[in-house]
């Protein structure tokens, strides 16, 4: 395996937003132009094209094409900025007023007015089928206070809401389509107000969207259409780009970077992200209902070696759900779980856990996931922990673990990040959150600290609250974070204007196709 030097890794990070290169030469981009079909290789079939009911973080790459959000975020900082809401204001700590842009319609012609926004927010926070109710727990009521104005009355102060409304909770779906849809969900017939409208979905094969000619952003989008091919094996997806069958592949595995850069027609864009590989734990279910077993798992993993072996060094070892560069990172929390297999064995013995007892974990069947599983099996074996992975495609495995089936004690997957860190913690570590697989209770002080992190707009007050949140999550070992993976996107020379973002979830706002 080719080792990556620290200098090379730092170059990747510092160059995240630098200009792209082609074959080692500066790659010039001309003036944007309309036309053409952008062909993308995607690693997973979406779980749903309804933003409220889907359960996989990988869905965003599809959802962002069809649904606009009430707020958006800056690509490099994730700072909220206006979206469908042209402005917002906290008129007091428990009142948020959103002013909706006038003249926007959904793809089916339904007006995107205050009533449509109210309908969506009420559905997202209270519908039994919604998987994003936890995003809007602070909202007590949603009121129409003008033709294009919505006022959110809050149970408690929540300064994270502008960031939250740039994610699924802020994706607006046509109320007309929802009322007409069977079961009130638009899983396979999405109708949003985004840059592209839905054309077709061949399950497990391809999703096609076309340009929304009435889109509200001037001169956007630029391509006529986007065709997204589902290619779970990333090596095959990379070949489809070098061979010219597709134009772009995202979530490229680190081991592919050196290989794909050899193709003279391909350029690679890279940047740091919040995307963290981790083992989700069901702490309502044996053996992870025992704190010492969860802690042992964290001590048993050599994260530095994992990064080198599984990610070619192109990642940051993860000791919590925020990377070093994040403003809320806590260096003291990062010291809680140094690699210590002897201590792991001791904790297991104290827990009465018989060495070698097999633990069933869920996982995915692609080459990179299987390689990570093999590395973890060997590391955990050295601490007396035997694990067996049961693999299924991303959407199926995620639904089996987080949904009603509650299959397996853990899931090796990834947390794809959220614009505001309080959303990350509330979605995983509150009692009724979808990503709390067992819907198990958490310490009251943790839920209080999460609320505190959203009570003030003062960054230092928030930082202090997040220190408490992160400490409580990791002291209780509710998760086993492994590594923050860099975004790697490869594209052919026709693709212009692509920019990476800190979430590591592709958006095609300014992408166009050259000749």
UniProtKB/TrEMBL annotation:
GO terms for molecular function: peptide transmembrane transporter activity. InterPro entries: Peptide/Ni-bd, SBP_5, SBP_5_dom, TAT_signal. It comes from the Bacteria. It holds the Pfam family SBP_bac_5. The keyword Signal applies. It is found in: Periplasm. One of its GO terms (cellular component) is ATP-binding cassette (ABC) transporter complex. Keywords: Signal. The keyword Translocase does not apply. One of its GO terms (biological process) is peptide transport. Residues 79-432 form the Solute-binding protein family domain. Belongs to the bacterial solute-binding protein 5 family. PANTHER family: D,D-DIPEPTIDE-BINDING PERIPLASMIC PROTEIN DDPA-RELATED (PTHR30290:SF38), PERIPLASMIC BINDING COMPONENT OF ABC TRANSPORTER (PTHR30290). This is ABC-type transport system substrate-binding protein. It comes from Bradyrhizobium elkanii. The lineage of its organism: Bacteria, Pseudomonadati, Pseudomonadota, Alphaproteobacteria, Hyphomicrobiales.
């Amino acid at each position: 395996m080719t080792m990556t030097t620290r200098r090379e890794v730092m170059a990747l990070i510092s160059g995240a937003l630098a200009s792209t290169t082609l074959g080692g030469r500066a790659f010039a981009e001309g003036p944007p132009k309309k036309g053409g079909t952008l062909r993308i290789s995607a690693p997973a079939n979406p779980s749903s094209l309804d933003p409220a009911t889907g359960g996989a973080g990988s869905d965003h790459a599809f959802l962002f094409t069809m649904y606009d959000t009430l707020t958006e975020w800056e690509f490099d900082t994730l700072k909220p900025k206006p979206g469908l809401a042209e402005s917002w204001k906290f008129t007091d700590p428990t009142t948020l007023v959103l002013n909706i842009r006038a003249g926007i319609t959904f793809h089916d012609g339904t007006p995107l007015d205050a009533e449509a926004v109210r309908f969506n927010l009420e559905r997202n926070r209270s519908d039994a089928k919604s998987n994003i109710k936890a995003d809007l727990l602070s909202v007590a009521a949603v009121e129409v206070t003008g033709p294009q104005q919505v006022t959110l009355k809050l149970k408690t102060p929540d300064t994270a809401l502008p960031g939250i409304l740039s994610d699924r909770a802020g994706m607006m779906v046509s109320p007309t389509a929802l009322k007409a849809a069977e079961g009130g969900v638009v899983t396979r017939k999405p109708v949003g107000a985004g840059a592209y409208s839905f054309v077709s979905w061949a399950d497990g094969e391809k999703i096609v969207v076309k340009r929304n000619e009435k889109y509200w952003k001037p001169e956007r989008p630029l391509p006529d259409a986007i065709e997204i091919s589902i290619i779970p094996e990333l090596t095959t997806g990379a070949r489809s780009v070098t061979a010219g069958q597709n134009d772009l592949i995202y979530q490229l595995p680190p081991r592919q970077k050196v290989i794909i850069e050899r193709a003279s027609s391909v350029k690679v864009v890279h940047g740091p992200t919040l995307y963290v590989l981790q083992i989700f734990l069901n702490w309502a279910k044996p053996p992870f209902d025992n704190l010492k077993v969860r802690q042992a798992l964290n001590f048993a993993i050599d994260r530095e070696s994992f990064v080198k072996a599984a990610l070619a060094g192109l990642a940051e070892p993860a000791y919590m759900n925020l990377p070093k560069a994040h403003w809320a990172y806590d260096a003291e929390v990062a010291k809680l779980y140094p690699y210590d297999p002897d201590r792991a064995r001791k904790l297991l013995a104290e827990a009465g856990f018989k060495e070698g007892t097999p633990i069933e974990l869920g996982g995915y069947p692609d080459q990179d996931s299987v390689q990570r599983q093999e590395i973890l099996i060997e590391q955990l074996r050295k601490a007396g922990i035997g694990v067996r992975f049961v693999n299924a495609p991303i959407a199926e495995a995620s639904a089996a673990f987080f949904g009603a089936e509650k299959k397996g004690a853990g899931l090796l997957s990834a947390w794809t990040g959220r614009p505001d860190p309080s959303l990350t913690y509330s979605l995983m570590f509150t009692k009724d959150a979808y990503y709390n697989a067992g819907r198990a209770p958490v310490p009251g002080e943790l839920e209080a600290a999460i609320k505190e992190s959203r009570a003030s707009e003062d960054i230092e007050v928030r930082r202090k609250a997040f220190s408490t949140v992160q400490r409580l999550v990791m002291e209780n070992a509710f998760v086993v974070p492994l590594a923050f993976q860099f975004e790697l996107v490869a594209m052919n020379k026709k693709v212009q204007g692509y920019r990476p973002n800190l979430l590591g979830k592709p958006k095609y706002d300014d992408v166009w196709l050259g000749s």
